[in-house]
Design goal:
A: 325 residues; mainly alpha; B: 309 residues; 72% helix
Chain lengths: 325, 309
Amino acid sequence: MTAFIARRLLQAVFVMLVVSLIAFALFRFVGDPVAQMVGQETSLADQARLRASMGLDDPVLVQYGRFLQRLVTADFGYSYRTRQAITEMILSRAPATIELGFVSLLVSLIIGVPAGIYTAIRKHGVLANAILILTLVGISVPTFVIGIGLITVFGVQLGWLPTFGRGDTVALGGWNTNFLTLDGWRSILMPALTLGVYQLTLTMRLVRAEMQGVLKSDFIRFARARGIDYSSLYLNHALRNTLVPVITIVGLQFGGVIAFSIVTEAVFQWPGLGLLFLDSIRYVDIPVMSTYLVLIALMFVTINLLVDLSYALIDPRVRLPGKGS
Amino acid sequence: MLSGTWSRWQRFRVDNELAHLFLHSPVAIVSALVATLAVLAALLAPVISPFDPYDIGGIDLLDSLLPPAWTPEGDARFPIGTDDQGRDLYSAILYGLRLSLLVGVLSVSFAALLGVTLGLIAGWFGGWVDALVMRIADVQLALPAILTALLVDGIARGILPDGSHDRLMLVVLTVAIGLSLWVDFARTARASTLVEKRKEYVQAAIIMGMHPLKILTRHVLPNILGPLLVILTIDLAVAILLEATLSFLGVGVPPNQPSLGTLIEIGTGYLFSGEWWIVLFPALALVTLIVSVNVLGDFLRDVFDPRLR
């Protein structure tokens, strides 16, 4: 077990090192950092002094070491465009994206789990087949088209929901939340649904597959023979046994939701991390780009690591020698 | 030559099965027809479209924002209306389809070439080569496709001199999307190679002293084509989706060139003023294309993965 954990940890550290190397190379070699920071009237001598004071004349390896050191202490430097400290920018934008991701996962669970159970029980029903066809459409329609469709219907035609921004938020310390005002809830609904559709189809298909597997097992057959009524059979006996893998996978999806919120945030002008990253791409704001890159990778690596370790705890086969990697 | 005839027989059997299952699946036939139609429309766009959206001289701003021909204010010249610059939407969609498919095919080919090569090498040689390739794949897997594509696009913006970005757009998009899709190919090729390598025909070829390159291309590759074809189809849909997304976000195809993503982006600006056709028809074209490719991919996966049957 210790060897397994050590190997997985090493792999995670390796991935993060490579990602940080990419981020460093981005910062150091795409464009000239000094030219980005000074105005046109700055003399060459001043530029050289700035270059030296930033340590850009040192050997590349030394610079990379310093870069890593700053990353570890969460010091991401300054944006070329806004001149703000990136750590502050990230912290002020993160709540919007995290809340959006949270609500979209919630939406995907609230709709996806019942739909999955239903399609597993009524395997050949008309409604079940219709739901299955809808999920194929669900994964084929690009996120931005879903968002535009929702805006057209609920924003333009019916006029029920706001079409952009976060609406009224309440500040709790440094955290601006949508959850304490009606307007905040109304604003988050459409973006969360847009972002959640893909997760929803995934959750539904997973619940359906797991349920079908469990329903075939012996203990369900015995329970059926004992005459337990159907709602208790499906919900207490079968569903409970499907929830562990479902929750694991949904948890795993949280990283994906945060990353894919780029598109949703662009459609709804949601002021989160995705929009920040997109602006950094448009204006070639390298420090912001590389910070976002490192953060997303860190999130994915951490989540993957946790999932691997929890599987290893539950299922000893995973950590047997030769089966890993 | 016993091994050769055996594998050829197997291939024949699978091919036959493919045709058989295909002819018995109405959904697959319809989506194949739709996809073929889209490819034909894309290839023949310069011939069949009434206007050339790239020809600025042929565009009249007075024709801008005309609704489809069947509405009272419509113009018979423009069957489904015009966009904000007075371009015929029908022609623009045909050319957009052309660009979407071109970028999709190019980037998936790039991803397949890179991924399959790395996967074959990793699976065949094992050891540190294998470890290296798989660790690079780990890094790639920590970065979602859309992020990789955006990042490569952003880097290209930073490196390339001003103005050349538009000219090199195709190359940039191909690399950006291709790099975000290669891992699936590499993993599948590696896993299949590991399996094939233990089989007798490959062992026999090794003993006969055949060059590894020849074994890989002549024997291993043809026998792992099935699973690769499935990924190829599914990733084509993903690539088209990524291209449309990048163009929609304004970092893909330049706005003056008609792509389905840019057309939809233009259309969203007119959602509130009632010009619904600019966003609706390109979106329909895009979704139809992706759905048909996805359905084909699903069908192929069912055929090649017997566990699902």
